Amino acid sequence: xxxxxIECVPNFSEGRDMNLIKQITxxxxxxxGAKLLDVDPGKxxxxxxxxFVGSPEAxxxxxxxxxxxxxxxxxxxxxxxxxxxFGATDVCPLVPVAGISMEETAEYARKLAQRIGSELExxxxxxxxxxxxxxxxxxxxxxxxxxxxxxxxLADPDWKPDFGPAEFNSRAGATAVxxxxxxxxxxxxxxxxxxxxxxxxxxxxxxxxxxxxKGDPLNGExxxxxxxxxxxxxxxxxxxxxxxxxxxxxxxxxISMNLTNISITPVHVAFDEVFNRAEARGVRVSGSELVGxxxxxxxxxxxxxxxxxxxxxxxxxxxxxxxxxVKSMGLDDLYPFKPEEKIIEYMMDTDQAASLVxxxxxxxxxxTASESPAPGGGSISACMGSLGMALGTMxxxxxxxxxGWEERWEEFSDWADRGxxxxxxxxxxxxxxxxxxxxxxxxxxxxxxxxxxxxxRKAAIEEATxxxxxxxxxxxxxxxxxxxxxxxxAESGNPNSVSDAGVGALAIRSSVxxxxxxxxxNAGNLEDKxxxxxxxxEAKKLEESVCRKEAEILxxxxxxx
Length: 561
Known about the structure:
The mean pLDDT is 93. Helix content is 51%, strand content 14%. The protein has helices at 18-29, 56-73, 102-120, 139-142, 150-154, 195-205, 267-280, 296-309, 318-329, 339-342, 344-348, 361-369, 377-400, 409-444, 451-492, 498-523, 529-560, and strands at 5-8, 11-12, 34-42, 47-54, 89-98, 124-128, 175-179, 184-190, 210-211, 232-233, 240-247, 252-259, 285-291. The two termini are 49 Å apart. The protein folds into three domains: 5-179, Formiminotransferase-cyclodeaminase, Chain B, domain 1, CATH 3.30.990.10; 184-348, Formiminotransferase, C-terminal subdomain (Alpha-Beta Plaits); 361-560, Up-down Bundle (Four Helix Bundle (Hemerythrin (Met), subunit A)), CATH 1.20.120. The strands form three sheets. Strands 1, 2, 3, 4, 5, 6 and 7 form a seven-stranded mixed sheet that branches. It is α+β, with helices and mostly antiparallel strands. The protein has 17 helices and 13 strands.
């Protein structure tokens, strides 16, 4: 993965002609360094949401090519659809993903907007974090009047485009280019066909709310402030935009929401709030739908939220958390929910073939036993540690729903959650240890014909060797943290599983001692003696500590057998 990574989520005003859509996405895939993650067409909205990621330069180039193709293929004068829109490429937001700030992302958005305006010669507006004025931060304001009102809007000096001519382009319309936080497009399904009822619920929850009225809350005269603007009654959810609509394709009304900051209003909070507001209006929520991709964390948080409501342990696998989230929010109501196609981290994961942790136990064993020097003791140490912690997590989960211990579920859930974090960190280090060894081999393979090449090769070997020391040292640090969980489970966990806590302690002890051997064998090849003296001293303390804790845990286990 590149050091800097951004996501682009252009919305094209075509959702029915798959051949046309493919011509646009082919432009994205033609750019090296840009990875197409998702193409989500909607027939009723006649709109396709495309998601791709890559380095900033690659994303900007891919976005421009796609926008150019959309302007050539889509005729906005003939476009009809349920969703607000004003251009062939209606919106084109950039989203910082890794190694890049929002400010930097906004600059890339403006760079893209300028190129579209100057080379394609039609109006472009910048919105949200890329906006050049406060008046244009809100997408709804920028797109107000939609395509049908665009000609009149362009005639207003206050709405002169940020880039490109202030001239109406009947075919391409206009494009809004922005920089924003990760937005989740999320629709909640209702057991009604009434757009009016769906809108009423949407107004209940969206941050903007609804206009205040005199007398009759539905038909009364709108109350206005001193400037003539409607006085709004805010909705219950922050950072949420929502409208109600009827989707003929599915025969249901939906609350269509944009969750613009899921750290403020996560998907599970939005779902439950709509559920409660709908019920108060005599409407039932039947499920929900994700449009485009969602971060893994959002799905895991949702799974934990619904497990806590059931008073069950949250320290379960990611797969189980995702399953709970999908079933609780009815994300498979309209069509199957496929995590590998909807969760952004899973879509970006391209290293599955080379991963040790994705092998079967048999394949991992046979790979270790082969003539190759890697995987070796470091990876096995990390694997042992992960399995040892998994045993502790199992005891916590079994304890959390033991009959008669119902009031202690949260205590054991917390231990299970701590254990899960440790076991996953150790599992990651299984592959990292092998990668560290490969980096040493790569450094030794560097040319050494000239003095400069020799100097660079020597520095690369030193750096790779340090990394090969630090990885098993991290195994030691991480595995040592497992002993607190295992001791708690040995002392107060399900008595029928106390032996599992003991086996977990044995595995963790072996993990730490094995990792220390790998630290020491690489230390002899390092020239930075200050660095290695410090590491060896700290590693020795970790080994002594974990051996002492193992003996204490085994003593507790024996007393309970």
